[in-house]
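Question (not urgent): is this output format expected?
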Amino acid sequence: QVQLVESGGGLVQAGGSLRLSCATSGRTFSTFNKAWFRQAPGKEREFLAGIGSSGVGTYYADSLKGRFTISGDNAKNTVYLQMNKLKPEDTAIYYCAGDIRGSDWLTRHVNYWGKGTLVTVSS
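Got this back:
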């Protein structure tokens, strides 16, 4: 069983930056992959970024165009999402995910979810 707890969300102006954190527990950090998803009001949850179990290999949604960066810290059992050049359309609840089956980072293949953290980008 893996527990995931997100933090770092909040209100930011357009063009600003935020760093989200996801503290993990319950299983050795390097034995499962992790990812970030988000869900905006009225929309489906979508994949943003993923990182391999050992920290090797990162994967991003094409729509991000290099604005977001995922990273992991084995010593702190924490995965991060650095978000730059934020836009109002980035407003959503951001979810940390763990142990995702397959290689397509599909929502239905996620075994563990955090409860999410709200990011609001004002114009």
